[in-house]
Specification:
single chain; alpha+beta; 9-stranded antiparallel beta sheet; 1 helix; 9 strands; about 60% strand
C-alpha cells in the first residue's frame, strides 16, 4: 500500500509539472495560420514600384519597391524587394527585405514560384508580432499588374494584449 501511495503522489507531481510547462509555453506566444490575396499595379508610384491592395488576414494597402532584378544562367529570375504595408485598421507592418524567385513563362510574364516574406513586427496590434509568409502567383509586366496568393503563420508574443485580427 505504501508503494502505491508513493506512485500516485509521484504521478500527480509529474502531471502538475507537465501542466505548468505546457502553460508557460502556450502563454509565451500565440500563433495562427493566415492567408489572403494581393493585387498590385506595376509602376504604382514610380518606376520599379508596385502599389495595390491585400485582402484576407492582412487586408489593406501594399506597395513594393523593386530593388534589383537578376536572371541566372538557368533562367531563374531573382527580384529583391522592400515592402510597404498598411492594414485597413491603420497599422503598419514591418517586413524584412525579401527575394521573389520565378521563371518567365512567356515574354513579360513571370511565374512566381518562391517568395518568402518575414513580418518582423509593426505598429498597433502588430507591435509584438512576427511571422513567415509564403507567396505564389504571377507578375505580368506587359499588362502592368501582379496577382499573388499568400499563406503563412503569425505569432504574437503574449504581453496581455490580444491580436484581434488573428484570434
Amino acid at each position: 500500500m505504501q508503494i502505491t501511495g508513493k506512485l500516485v503522489c509521484s504521478f500527480f507531481a509529474t502531471l502538475v509539472l507537465a501542466a505548468t510547462a505546457v502553460g508557460q509555453n502556450s502563454s509565451h506566444s500565440k500563433c495562427q495560420p493566415i492567408g489572403g490575396f494581393i493585387s498590385t499595379n506595376v509602376g504604382g508610384w514610380g518606376p520599379n514600384t508596385t502599389m495595390g491592395t491585400a485582402v484576407g488576414d492582412l487586408a489593406g494597402a501594399v506597395g513594393v519597391e523593386i530593388l534589383n532584378i537578376t536572371t541566372g544562367a538557368n533562367g531563374l529570375v531573382n527580384v529583391s524587394v522592400q515592402h510597404h504595408w498598411v492594414t485597413t485598421t491603420g497599422d503598419t507592418l514591418t517586413i524584412d527585405k525579401a527575394n521573389l524567385r520565378g521563371v518567365y513563362v512567356a515574354p513579360g510574364l513571370l511565374a512566381v514560384t518562391e517568395y518568402k516574406v518575414h513580418l518582423a513586427g509593426g505598429t498597433g496590434q502588430y507591435q509584438n508580432t512576427s511571422g513567415d509568409i509564403n507567396v505564389i502567383g504571377e507578375a505580368d509586366f506587359n499588362a502592368g499588374h501582379t496577382a499573388l496568393q499568400f499563406t503563412g503563420q503569425l505569432c504574437h508574443e503574449n504581453d496581455g494584449s490580444v491580436l484581434s485580427v488573428i484570434l
